[in-house]
Amino acid sequence: MTSDQLIFEIGKVHTALKNLEAGEPLEGSEETKTSLTVKEAFRKGEVVCMLCGKGGFKTLARHLNTAHGMKPGEYKKQFSIPGKQPLAAKNYSDARRKMALDRGLADNLAKARGVRMANIEAKKTAPVKPAKPAKAPKPPKEAGAKAKTA
After folding, report:
1. Domain region containing 44
2. Ranges of Basic and acidic residues compositional bias (predicted)?
3. pTM to 2 decimal places
4. What is the pLDDT along the chain (150 residues), one digit of tens a residue?
5. How many folded domains does the chain comprise?
């Protein structure tokens, strides 16, 4: 192998590795989608991308945007993932939920919802004030009127 051929092959390997890191399929590979099921992709400790097969994510939304230029809704639609299925690992969701409960965020949310509903009800039951009739605009003063008084 000549040095030019070697440099060319190293360049191909480098390009292939960059594409793999970005989540793009290899050139010449016939399979563009991984053969993962939804259950296999959403594991307890990690989430695996069903487009490129890359795994180890706690949440998938950022990877979808950066590597594939895709929004979570499009991803769910493409793979028939239920709308209520979070794109996060179960352990991660549980840890975030526990942290929110420890901080009392659920109580704060309940209070805020109660205040909001009370405001909505108050607006519904408030008597409707009749609209005041619009005043007719005053006619502009004439310049001649000033001259007569002076």
Report:
1. 25-88
2. 139-150
3. 0.50
4. 788 888 988 998 988 888 777 766 656 554 445 577 888 888 899 999 988 888 889 999 999 999 889 999 999 999 889 989 899 999 999 999 999 989 988 888 899 999 999 999 988 887 766 666 667 667 777 665 555 555
5. 2
Same domain, 67 and 98: no
| Residues whose CB falls within 8 Å of the CB of residue 71, separated by 6 or more in sequence, listed in order | 64, 65
Q: Are residues 119 and 71 in the same domain?
A: no
* Token code pair at residue 81: 């993932």
- Write out the two tokens for 145: 């009127």
| Residue written as token pair 């180890």 | 56
